[in-house]
Amino acid sequence: MSETAIQSLEHVEAQLNYLSDTSEKPVTYTYEPPPGVPWATGQYQARQATIHDLRPLAQEFSLDEAGFQLVSHRSAVQNFWDEEELKRVYYPEAIDLLKRVTGATQVYIFDHTLRRRVPKVENDRAAGRGIPRQPAMRVHVDQTASSGVTRLRHAFPGEAEALLRHRVAIVNLWRPIKSPVLDAPLAVCDARSVAPRERIRETFVARFSALP
């Protein structure tokens, strides 16, 4: 795709928070750490960036090439905050959508996350159970090649080895519950524009919950 085509799109200027490259490997806890241990040790730098609205060129990007894909989908879910309705209605919808978009023969859902901004809450894990997950305010990649395999083996221990004999992928399916999103909209980056040497590996100390 030509740079001219992208530059012609509507855009905004925004500050993105990047993990700084320090001499120490950053660590983040996803549950309360031991006494005296910080929740996270990473340091971040805000960088100005141009964010383009890629909707007019959505067909130019695919999961296989860019690492993300924009699709239109209408859900029958009436209340996304109803856990039972999500599992009864949205899970089958998501499985069908992912099969159609990716060509996958099997789709397994191992969890979901609902995010909603609560003013003045910076660490939702430290704030208590009544606080919903907050938008992620830093540039990051959810899975690496090795962590994806680890997650697969944890989520589906009886099937993991058989699945790994074929091509597998962990795909995040994100959607706005209400539109337009005016606070902390999702921004994505073309995977081809980031060289492996530019990535910083961060250790996440997590306790996986049991599957329902």
Describe, in plain words, how this protein is organized in 3D.
With 212 residues, the protein is of the alpha+beta class. The chain has one domain (3-205). Helix content is 23%, strand content 11%. The strands form 2 sheets. The protein has a two-stranded antiparallel ribbon with strand order 1-3. The N and C termini lie far apart (43 Å). The model has no long low-confidence stretch (mean pLDDT 90).
Find the count of extended strands (DSSP E, 2+ residues): 4
Distance between the termini: 43 Å
Overall SS class: alpha+beta
Number of structurally distinct domains: 1
Number of helices: 6
Radius of gyration: 19 Å
Low-confidence stretches: none
Percent of residues in helices: 10-25%
How would you write the strand order of the largest sheet? 1-3
Which strand-content bin applies to the residues? 5-15%
What would you say about this model in short?
The chain has helices at 3-7, 63-66, 83-102, 124-127, 145-155, 160-163, and strands at residues 11-19, 27-29, 44-52, 203-205. It has 212 residues and is an alpha+beta fold.
What structural keywords apply?
212 residues; globular; two-stranded parallel sheet; single chain; 4 strands; alpha+beta; 23% helix; two-stranded antiparallel ribbon
Q: What topology emerges from the helices and strands here?
A:
Blueprint: H1 3-7, E1 11-19, E2 27-29, E3 44-52, H2 63-66, H3 83-102, H4 124-127, H5 145-155, H6 160-163, E4 203-205
Parallel strand pairs: 2-4
Antiparallel strand pairs: 1-3
